[in-house]
From TrEMBL:
The chain crosses the membrane at residues 57-78, 90-113, 119-137, 144-168, 188-209, 230-260, 272-290, 302-324, 344-367, 394-412, 424-442, 451-472, 478-500, 521-544, 564-593, 605-626, 632-655. This is Iron complex transport system permease protein. Its main location: membrane. It is found in: Cell membrane. Belongs to the binding-protein-dependent transport system permease family. FecCD subfamily. GO terms for biological process: siderophore-iron import into cell. GO terms for molecular function: transmembrane transporter activity.
Length: 664
């Protein structure tokens, strides 16, 4: 493998030879029946095979090449500018914004889709980009600010799309097909429209090569006359433009933006000028291979699989293989933005947060909506009859929020990566896939069946991750394993959802994070596990603080770093698995709660962990109350409401934290 890593061009050439061979195998019979001349000439109207070749097959092949190239290039720009191996075209929420715009157009502006679907999706993508850039500009495009804002934007748009789908499933069920990515073409117009845009963005990216090379020096680059804010903004704009143009044309095929740059680095493309060429070529070759294989599969079986989902199914094993072979080269530094100011009274803040959680819990128990929809305060016999419904779901939601927040805090402290969150491990996706399997195996699954399926799915993911952890050379690489495995399972779920099977569509409600069916026994179980989780995390505080000082310092204090990593990852994964079974895989709280605690001033050790847990509990308790009463008599999923609620709160605290950092 070493001689291959030293020659990225050779490996890229071999990948293209493979793509050419598969394309020849798939298209050979059709070209043979029409003649090679049909490839270069307009077909006659009576020759159906030539028409198919000229207006469908060849445009699709060219679209695969152009889209793969564009996504690979955008991924390189994201990962280099943000200096994070987890960055990808979806980091800025562009794909989610485009999908939201398409859903809105389908519901309220269908005429716009008849005129130009690209316009609607491009508007959504650039709108998401504009929001992220507006916030990131205040932080001079510091990588940590861009990453966090983009993740919030993506999760927020995804939550709204899920909510719209739940309320209008008959109209928006087809959105999953588009979300899976489709390269089907009926003529050359899409290719002709996309190609010059990609060429223009590529030229702009190449013009930035010198500045991007100096960008690795960080703030020291300003001494060389490089305007960091301008370079970051320009590179990110090019990356987002490439993603938006591609998503507008073919839908969401975002995994290539993550995989192609990592593969390029793993095969030896160390310099940015080399990666800017190798990664797009790798992305184009991978997408051609995947799409040609999917065409062969569809021809043999008659089943349609979205190309975007299939890209993850085939690309993930390739990504995992190169990571296992060249793990040490994948670690990338993460620049942090301005550190939040530590509070001088952390105990008072913790007590205040605990008081807020208690106050929200009291409101959730005593306040509700009457039969006529009016607000009422329930007491006495009425409260006694309602308590078995309100209390279990409140306890479950609060406990799940605590566990997700603790899991997110552990991951972010262990890896030093602000993007680390419970869903990154892929445990949530494993739980969802386990539940999906149960829906197809058991005709009328009970809660026990769902729990068994979820545990089996989460357990399988944990077993695979721990087996891979032996080859991990860094926390970031372990997160890459989790991202890849999660993408693989999410792709499988997308394939099943795209089939339109009603059993699969019933999973959407759970994925949104509903606590409607939580029983008393289940709420007691999850609350007990939350308490155990708090105690366990408290025992890990001191080793975590020593671990933060470096491996040598930790070893000198008797800390076994490798065992500590495995224990912390196991605790975080188990907390995520149980919480996911209750509130679904939208673990937005696990990402945001630790940052909310930091922005409030709880930045150190135990106060930060306790503050994170209380922030998670507060978000989920509030979300449960809003979900139960806002759209009465219908129920809004708690996990989804938590996402919609947490986004603005986090944005306000992020901006407030920026102002405070200027004052000190």
């Amino acid at each position: 493998m070493k001689h291959i890593a030293a020659r990225p061009w050779l490996t890229t050439g071999l990948l293209w030879c493979m793509a050419a061979a598969i394309a020849t195998f798939n298209l050979g019979p059709l070209i043979g029946s029409t003649g090679v001349r049909a490839v270069f000439s307009l077909p006659s109207a009576g020759d159906s095979q030539a028409v198919l070749l000229h207006y469908s097959v060849l445009p699709r092949l060219m679209m695969s090449c152009v889209c793969g190239f564009a996504l690979g290039l955008s991924g390189v720009l994201f990962q280099h500018v943000l200096r994070n191996p987890l960055a990808s075209p979806s980091t800025l929420g562009v794909e989610a914004g485009a999908q939201l715009a398409l859903g809105v157009a389908m519901l309220w502006f269908p005429a716009l889709l008849g005129w130009s679907r690209d316009t609607a999706t491009a508007f959504g993508g650039f709108a998401a980009m504009a929001v992220v850039f507006a916030v990131a500009w205040r932080f001079k495009f510091q990588p940590i600010a861009v990453i966090l804002t983009g993740l919030v934007m993506g999760l927020y748009c995804t939550a709204i799309v899920t909510l719209l789908t739940l309320m209008n499933d008959h109209y928006l069920s087809g959105l999953f097909v588009w979300g899976g990515g489709s390269l089907n073409q009926n003529d050359w117009r899409s290719v002709v429209g996309l190609f010059p845009k990609v060429v223009g963005c590529t030229v702009l990216a190449l013009l930035l090569v010198r500045q991007l090379s100096v960008l690795t020096l960080g703030e020291a680059a300003q001494g060389l006359g490089v305007k960091l804010q301008f370079v970051r903004a320009a590179a990110l704009f090019v990356a987002v433009a490439l993603t938006t143009f591609t998503v507008s044309a073919v839908g969401v095929i975002g995994f290539l933006g993550l995989a192609a740059p990592v593969i390029a680095r793993a095969i030896g493309a160390r310099r940015i000028n080399t990666r800017l060429i190798v990664a797009p070529l790798v992305g184009a070759a991978l997408l051609i291979i995947v799409d040609q294989i999917m065409q062969i599969y569809t021809a043999k079986t008659g089943s349609y699989v979205p190309t975007g989902a299939a890209t993850a199914l085939i690309g993930v094993p390739v990504l995992l293989f190169v990571m296992l072979k060249r793990g040490g080269s994948l670690q990338t530094a993460v620049q942090s933005g301005s550190s939040p100011v530590a509070s001088s009274r952390p105990l008072m803040l913790i007590v205040t947060l605990a008081g807020l959680v208690l106050a929200v819990a009291m409101v959730a128990i005593f306040v509700g909506r009457g039969v006529d929809g009016s607000w009422i305060s329930s007491t006495g016999a009425t409260l006694k009859s309602l308590l078995p419904w309100r209390l279990p779901r409140l306890v479950a939601a609060t406990s799940a929020g605590i566990m997700l927040a603790l899991a997110g805090s552990l991951l972010q402290r262990l890896t030093g990566n602000a993007m680390a969150s419970p869903e990154v491990l892929g445990v949530s996706a494993g739980t969802a896939f386990g539940l999906l399997c149960i829906l197809f195996v058991v005709s009328e699954p009970t809660i026990s069946h769902r729990l068994i399926g979820g545990f089996l799915g989460a357990g399988s993911v944990l077993a695979i991750l721990f087996a891979m952890s032996r080859a991990a050379h860094s926390g970031n690489q372990f997160l890459m394993f989790g991202v890849s495995l999660g993408a693989f399972l999410t792709a499988l779920i997308s394939v099943v959802l795209a089939s339109g099977d009603p059993r699969a569509l019933s999973l959407i409600s759970w994925m949104a994070g509903s606590t409607y069916g939580v029983s008393s026994a289940m709420s007691l179980t999850i609350s007990a596990l939350a308490i155990v989780g708090i105690i366990t995390v408290m025992l890990l505080v001191r080793p975590l603080q020593q671990f933060a000082l470096g491996d040598l310092s930790a070893h000198s204090h008797g800390v076994d770093v490798k065992k500590l990593q495995i224990v912390i990852l196991a605790v975080a994964a188990l907390l995520t698995a149980m919480a996911t079974l209750i509130v679904g895989p939208l673990s937005f709280v696990g990402l945001m709660a630790p940052h909310l605690a930091q922005r409030l001033g709880l930045t150190r050790g135990l106060p930060h962990l306790m503050g994170s847990a209380l922030c998670g509990a507060l978000l989920m308790a509030t979300a449960d109350f809003i979900g139960r009463t806002a759209h009465f008599p219908w129920q809004l999923p708690t996990g989804l409401v938590a996402t919609l609620l947490g986004g603005p709160v986090f944005a306000l605290l992020l901006i407030r934290g920026r102002r405070l950092s200027k004052l000190h």
